[in-house]
Amino acid sequence: IEYMMLIIQIKHMDESWNNRMKTVNQFKKLMYVIFLPVGLLLFFLSSSAPALTEKVYSNGIFKIIGQVLSLITALLPFSLAEFTIIFLVLFILWNLIRIIIRMLKEKSRKWHIVLNFFINILAFASIIYFGFVILWGLNYNRLPFSSIANLDVRPTSVKELAEVCENIIGRANELRSKVSENKEGVMYLPNGIGDALKRAYKG
Asked: CA–CA separation, 10 vs 12, rounded Å?
C-alpha cells in the first residue's frame, strides 16, 4: 500500500511539474508578443523624426546590417527573401494541418489547441515584424532622396517627361555601343565580375 501511495504521489508530482512547465512556456510565448508593440513603437518614432532616422539608422546602424546581409546573401545561389517567404508559407500550412489533426484526435481539448495555435502565430509574427523593422523597415521613414540630393521637386508636364525619357534612351543606346560583346552579341565583362564590382561605386 505504501508503495502504491508513493507511485501515486510521484505521478501527481510529475503531472504538476508538467502543468507548471506548460504555464511557463505559455508565459514565454506571451513575452515574445511584446516584440510587436515594440516594433510598432520604433516604426512610429522613426516616422516622427526622419532626419534622425537618416543619421542614426540609415547612415549608421543599417550600413553595418547591410554589409553583413550582403556577405550572407552573396554566398547563396538563390534569393534569400524568396526562400524566406516560401518557407514561411509552408511552415504556416504545415502547422495548420498539424493543428487540425490534433483537434480531430483530441476533441475535448480543441479550444485549448486553437488558443495555443493563435498564441504561437502571434508570437511568431511579432518576432518576424520586429526583425523586419530592425533589419530594414526603418528605412521607409528616412529622408526622401530629393531632400538628400537637394533636388528641386515640382510637378512636371507630359512634354518634360517625354523629353527626359528620350534623353535617357539616347544615353542608354550610346553606352550600349561601348559594351563588350561576344560572338553571339551578348554583353560580357572582359575583366570579370570582381573588376566591375570594384568600379560600381563610380556609377
From this structure: 5
SS3 category, 181? strand
pLDDT tens digit string along 136-173?
Answer: 999 999 998 888 888 888 888 899 999 999 999 999 99
Tell me which long-range contacts 45-51 makes (C-beta under 8 A, separation of at least 24).
Answer: 46/138, 46/141, 47/141, 50/141, 50/142, 50/143, 51/143
Q: Grid coordinates in use for 159? A: 512634354
Task: Specify the pTM.
Answer: 0.65
**Rounded Cα gap, residues 136 and 63, in angstroms:** 11
Q: Rounded distance, CA 110 to CA 36, Å?
A: 27
| DSSP 8-state assignment for residue 187 | B
Cα–Cα dist 62/132, whole Å:
12
- Phi, psi (deg, nearest 5) at residue 146: -60, -35
Please, what is the Cα angle at 188 between 184 and 189, to 5 degrees? 160
Which residue's C-alpha cell is 498539424? 98
User: CA triplet 153, 60, 74: central angle to 5 degrees?
Assistant: 95
- CA 29, 38, 94: angle at the middle one, nearest 5? 40
Closest-CA residue to 148 (of 59, 19, 30): 59
Closest by alpha carbon to 138, among 26, 49, 198, 28?
A: 49
